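Why do we care about 3D structure at all? Because function follows from shape, and shape follows, mostly, from sequence. That is the central idea of this module. The next example makes it concrete: a single protein chain, its amino acid sequence, and then its structure expressed as tokens.
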Amino acid sequence: MKDAVQCSNAAADAGTCPAGSLIGHADVAAGVGSTPFWVTNGRVYLTESYRGAPYGLAVVVDAIAGPFNLGR
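And the structure:
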């Protein structure tokens, strides 16, 4: 297994982390009530330090529900 590279905080803020920093995927539920809308295309990236910790995580989810695109 190859080591992940840390995405810069600036790239994480811009949503442009390189593929080498991808470390996993995320499923996210949004909405009210007992039947939230699930988005299953989330990506998790390793980032530079966060609040004094040696690294951080950026979770990027494209909020697209049918004809509605709410961005990232």
